[in-house]
Amino acid sequence: EKLIRELKEENERLKSLVGGGSVPGGAGGADAEKIRAEYEEQLQATKLMMEEMAKSWEQKIKEAEENDASQGEDDERWKTTCHLKNLNEDPLLTGNIKHAFVEDTKLKVGRNSKDNPPEVVLGGLGILAEHCFLEMRGGTCSVIPGSDTSAKTMVNGKQINGPMELENHDRILFGNHNYFLFVDPEEIGGEEFDWEYAMKEVHKDQVALYSGGALSEEDKKLKEEAEQKLKEEQQKIEAEKQRVEEEFKAKEAKMREELEMAGGDPEVLKKIKELEAELQKERQESEDLMKDKEGQLEEEQKKLMERYDQGNIKKDIEHRAQRDLEEKLTNVIVKINELHEICAVLKQPNGFEPYIQLESTA
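Predicted structure:
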């Protein structure tokens, strides 16, 4: 109320100055007109302030509710629409930019252009005027390369060379810096990825090339092959168990048939009981043998994992050192890739490559 009262007093003062025909200091001519114009501007600004201050709390609450409702409608839209959302190094900025897919529509992605603007505007290094396209057909969303094969568009760390169907939480890189996450609201759950994961995924092959990570991939392949052999052995044991069980069932069926034919003959009944006891013994021995084989297989699998852990995966301190090296390499490779892109734009030769120098600790 005090502020409104002061504004009213200021408003009356300005009105008297503007309407009075004179200005302070006795200025005249052009100077007087200039001062009077300034007073009129101040008067208009004061009126607007008074109108804003005079709004009732009910009006302000109503406006706030309308804004919240509008925002809520926008949030509801993304809950039912397949879209891309940006990934940013700053988590607070992640998800602030969204691009919706439209059924039976092909959206162009590229740099802004007055003559032929794209539906999805991106900027930064490596973005071409017609970079690629986003398409949705029959509920399936895809990324389609543009006509220029030099355009860098990667899905889950791999460059695309043709139309690529997207799955929930796929990571897409346009150019050098535009990271996005594909979101399909109909797919519930699943791991959600951040900017750091997407960035490292894009550069992991280059990092492996310089850090020796390729050897780790080879070790992983050997481990998978060994596990496959163990799996095959397990399948053989299961098949053998099934064969033996079928044999026992056949023998039991034959004994029941002989028992029916015996007609109460004591000698035959005695013989059948002996055969039944022998069959039970064979079954137990077979089960014990299968358990031994399974135990041996589990032991081999355990030894395999121990050999893999001790021989192929680096020890804890080495693993930390490797991780630190890969972190630094990733940052260097990102910068080098930017230099390559800048050189390409400027049509200048480039020969930048990562260089690792090992220092002796002796």
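Summary: The helical segments are 2-19, 29-54, 57-78, 195-211, 213-262, 266-312, 316-346.
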